[in-house]
Amino acid sequence: MANTYTQCYLHLVFAVKNRDALIRKTWKENLEKYITGIIQGEGHKLLAINSMPDHIHIFIGYNLNQLIPDLIEQIKTSSNKWIKENKFSRFNFSWQKGYGCFTHSNSQIKAVVNYILHQEEHHKKKSFKEEYLKILKQNDIKYAEKYLFDFWENLGID
User: Fold this and answer.
1) Does residue 56 sit in helix, strand or coil?
2) Of 95, 116, 126, 152, which residue has the fewest beta carbons closer than 10 angstroms?
3) Percent of the chain beyond pLDDT 70?
4) Distance between CA atoms of 102 and 18, rounded to whole angstroms?
5) What digits encode the pLDDT tens for the residues 11-61?
6) SS3 105
């Protein structure tokens, strides 16, 4: 539509289902490239992506022409299929239900990108659960413990 201008930055977080189906360092970069292709193919701008053994962070300049749940579903469904087709995991890989989606302003881009790109160092001090609960609290999001991700602590998996 003419004379319509938007700017929306989203930080997406979702987790791997089942402790035995973890993202390995040997193929995490390929996964991130694959998901980047999905995001860019839908007209979003990838700002940062980083996967840990049990979860992934994605930061995008969001194209408002696609619904957020549709984008998440596309990323999860396509990457599940891709991981299985490439036999990256000897276990039945899938993503947990649900996701986190948090908005940020233009002035926060550099800090969020830095935060996502330095996940490995960050998780030497904080578990995924501690990190996720902190993000929920910072965004004043009310939650029920029973609906949070299944969290696994101290995995130490490469």
Assistant:
1) strand
2) 126
3) 91
4) 24
5) 999 999 865 458 999 999 999 999 999 999 999 999 999 999 989 999 999
6) coil
CA 62 to CA 66: how far, in whole Å?
Answer: 9
CATH of 9-147, one of 3.90.550.10, 3.30.70.20, 1.10.10.60, 3.30.70.1290: 3.30.70.1290
Give the burial class of 102: count Cβ atoms within 10 A of its Cβ; 0-12 exposed, 13-18 middle, 19 or more buried. middle
Which residue ranges make up each domain of the chain? 9-147
Going by C-alpha positions, the residue among 125, 38, 36 that lies closest to residue 74 is 38
Helix ranges (DSSP H) in the chain:
25-41, 68-85, 109-117, 119-122, 128-138
* Nearest residue to 100 (alpha-carbon basis) of 152, 149, 36: 149
